[in-house]
Amino acid sequence: MTTNNQILLNNLERLGLNKIREYLPNYLDQIHTDNLSLTEALIDLTNSELQNRHEGQIARAIAVLGFPNTKSLDTFDFSFQPSINRQEVLEFQNLAFMEKSENLIFIGNPGVGKTHLAISIGIEACKQGCRVLFINCHELLIRLRAAYEKGLLDRSLSRYSRYDLLIIDEIGYLPIGHQEANLLFQLVNARYEKHSTIITSNSDLSAWVDIFQNPTVTAAILDRLVHHVHVVKITGKSYRLRGLK
Ligand code: ADP
Ligand code: MG
């Protein structure tokens, strides 16, 4: 025999209201205990369904934005990196820097948490509805170069310059040829004073001329990037090697 409860659960399933379906059995008891009105109960249940959908949308969005994994500032151990101004970094989560189209540059040796911080801020921006892309610098330059060779550079530059937040990870791990440096300059120039860019690098800005191997293009890139910038220099040890003496 089909009980009313089963009919209700079937209906919820057919309507795709899965969170309500999951909550309902326990919730029915709570309705009696707390003496909730039908309206109050429906508000609670529909809120849980909406919250679940919102989280699903965020998770799907994050999955396609290029993040290598998900990180959060909640799991960042600031006591391990005393050179970081914790307050300054926590404030980046409020995204005020994006309203002012300011850039962030995280500099430090491998393993000090640059990518972790960049991802955390990027995910926060994504949760707040911004269009974000996380991309490795080498990969970005390969894509720009391919677009250039196909005669599609303008289209590609306009696509990358439209993101509210572009995170370019690992500038400086590999040397950058003249043509690629020029493409990067064009991208940085297209985003200049319009949208924020976050960059991570293992090289001090003063050593970027060695990466781009050309003082003129280095100066041009730096000029646009650092005009409105917060530079976070991390001078501590690698978190990856924290167990080693
Ligand atoms: P980097 O980009 O500077 O080379 P990562 O951000 O990739 O370093 O950090 C390496 C690993 O260590 C990641 O898994 C990261 O989450 C973790 N990690 C780095 N610093 C911290 C920290 N202070 N607290 C917690 N985890 C950290
Ligand atoms: Mg990194």
UniProtKB/TrEMBL annotation:
Stretches that traverse the bilayer: none
InterPro entries: AAA+_ATPase (IPR003593), DNAC/IstB-like (IPR028350), IstB (IPR047661), IstB_ATP-bd (IPR002611), P-loop_NTPase (IPR027417)
GO MF term set: ATP binding
Matching CDD domains: AAA (cd00009)
Pfam families: IstB_IS21
Domain AAA+ ATPase: from-to ranges: 100-235
GO BP annotations listed: DNA replication
Gene3D superfamilies: P-loop containing nucleotide triphosphate hydrolases
Keyword tags: ATP-binding, Nucleotide-binding
UniProt family annotation: Belongs to the IS21/IS1162 putative ATP-binding protein family.
PANTHER family reported for this sequence: ATP-BINDING PROTEIN RV3427C IN INSERTION SEQUENCE-RELATED, CHROMOSOMAL REPLICATION INITIATOR PROTEIN DNAA
This protein's name: Putative helper protein
Organism annotation: Secundilactobacillus collinoides
Gene: istB
